[in-house]
Amino acid sequence: MMNGQGRVSPGTAAPRKERSCSWLNIWVFLIFALPVKAAFVTICLVALLDGSYGQYKTLLQNSTEWYCVPSSSAEKMDGWMCCPKGWRFFQASCYYLSPDTMSWAESEQNCTGMGSQLVVINSKAEQEFLFNLAKEKVTNIYETKYYIGLAAYENGQWQWVDQTPYENTPMWTHPSCLSEQDLNAHHSLAH
């Protein structure tokens, strides 16, 4: 009870103050903030990784099974190089021999649709790998032909699909490696 001077009389309880449940508000906030924060971190991580896949983004999205080998490359942080099932790994790239018969333009479009491109051959070792890969896939290498990413444009000069100019090098020693063929129906070789 209060006396006339606004003081509490002895033997009476102090007036009750309104108490807020601030500790409850903090827990409710934390419980709801944690999933939002986790979602934000996940979105940022996916966006970061999304940019690092480059040309393999579509390839990764379209394939559900993988073949992985340990990576000896210092540039690969995860220590593995993976190719979709049915593709072959060689020197940090994945290769695919299409069983479908198509024109060069259709082959190029098919490879692009898989997040890839017709193969650009950069070394004698890569050429040998591709030649041996083609031999594994067919019974008679001279009856089955594969397109590579080399085309002659209006000026008559050969150019790779990645816009690298073709340089006549000694690596093209096999007689059937580079000749102007009928562009109607061959298989594609994706890289």
Automatic annotation (TrEMBL):
UniProt xrefs under InterPro entries: C-type_lectin-like, C-type_lectin-like/link_sf, C-type_lectin/matrix_domain, CTDL_fold
The name this protein goes by in its record: C-type lectin domain-containing protein
Pfam family, one: Lectin_C
Record's GO cellular component terms: plasma membrane
Top-rank lineage group of the source organism: Eukaryota
TM spans (from-to): 26-49
Keyword hit for Transmembrane helix: yes
Domain C-type lectin as annotated: residue spans: 90-179
PANTHER family per UniProt: C-TYPE LECTIN DOMAIN-CONTAINING PROTEIN 180, RH26557P
Compartmental location: Cell membrane
Sorted UniProt keywords: Membrane, Transmembrane, Transmembrane helix
Record's bilayer topology term: Single-pass type II membrane protein
Record keyword Membrane present: yes
